[in-house]
Design brief:
The protein is mostly helical. It has helices spanning 9-12, 16-22, 27-37, 42-49, 54-66, 88-91, 94-103, 107-120, and strands at 40-41, 70-75, 81-86. It contains 8 helices and 3 strands; from the N terminus they run H-H-H-E-H-H-E-E-H-H-H.
Length: 127
């Protein structure tokens, strides 16, 4: 195959579509929060995540519902109540989140590597 021949991105990296779904901005904190704390009302979820705007949270929840990772339950009460929870499909990601949590102590090594790089690399080569 020549260098100019385009390669299907999924063939080049078959996990890329998974990463797009699971690790798009705000998806991971939402799914992690729902996995950790169970069924949540919108305001509870917003408070637990902390830095997300209501508009973005609404957009991400709709996308996660569309992807089948989150279930939305509407209660026709006065005032209306809506709750969100992780679907079985979303819950199947729990081992992945657990593995990432187990890896997180390595972030200290990442920070140390960054400091070493910044101290030794010429300024014009730094990101």
């Amino acid at each position: 195959m020549s260098e100019s021949t385009a390669v299907d991105p999924v063939q080049a990296c078959p996990i890329a579509p998974v990463v797009d779904v699971v690790f798009s901005r705000w998806t991971t904190p939402i799914l992690w929060t729902l996995n950790e704390f169970g069924r949540q009302r919108f305001v509870q979820l917003e408070r637990r995540i902390g830095v997300i705007t209501p508009k973005v949270l609404t957009q991400r929840l709709r996308q996660l519902e569309r992807d089948g990772l989150v279930l939305r339950t509407y209660y026709p009460e006065v005032p209306p109540r809506v709750e969100y929870e992780v679907s079985d499909l979303g819950r199947s990601l729990a081992p992945l989140f657990r593995s990432l949590a187990e890896w997180s102590p390595n972030l200290a090594e990442v920070e140390a590597a960054r400091r070493r790089f910044d101290e030794t690399e010429p300024a014009n080569r730094r990101p």
